[in-house]
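Hi all, long-time lurker, first post. I run a small reading group and we've been trying to get comfortable going from sequence to structure in the token notation. Rather than ask abstract questions, I figured I'd post a concrete chain and ask someone more experienced to write out its structure so we can walk through it together at our next meeting. Sequence below, copied exactly:
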Amino acid sequence: MTPNTRRGLPAAAACALLAACMHTPPAAPLEPAATLARFNARTLPGLSGALPAASAGWDRSQWLSAALQLNPQLGEQRAAVLAAAAAERSAAERPNPGVELFAEYLTASAQSTAWLYGVSLDFLLRRPAERARARQQAALQAALAQSELAESIWQVRAALRRALLDAVSARDETALLEALIAQRQALVDSDRARVQLGDLARTQM
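-- Answer (accepted) --
Happy to help. Here is the structure in token form:
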């Protein structure tokens, strides 16, 4: 090994340690205008690419598909499921060590001075079985998030079924009321015709 190679090894090792301990970049800042635009786009016409126009008449499965896409609570819980899954994947990973660079100015007895450089690594040592407990807790949190999402989907489905039944009942009731109004109007027209013919007195209407 040449002297140049020996001199370059500490620098390469320091670079490798620094690269291994890099942190993830911070999250992008929120954009209120973009968030508002996405929220306003969450409408039935906005689903025209995935579903036919609602005016053409949807069946129950199409209404359920629209409800699952537009319900804000389901969107929040889907994000919670993804976050819990990510936490489960990283629960058993060993934490990155902390790196500290230091330099010290030394003065020897012979009045010669020099700089002393060093690197210190801080490792977090977990207790025995702590990683297993972290994995179990993360798995439980992920299962809980999935269970809550499934329960919310079932509640949305049940609420949609009730709403569709109410809509059908209201439509049938409207048809019956319109038929009753038509019959009453026919009776009124018949009585008016009889009054004009003198077959019925106005006081009898």
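A couple of things your group might point at:
The beta strands are 98-107, 113-122.
The helical segments are 3-20, 32-40, 60-70, 72-90, 130-197.
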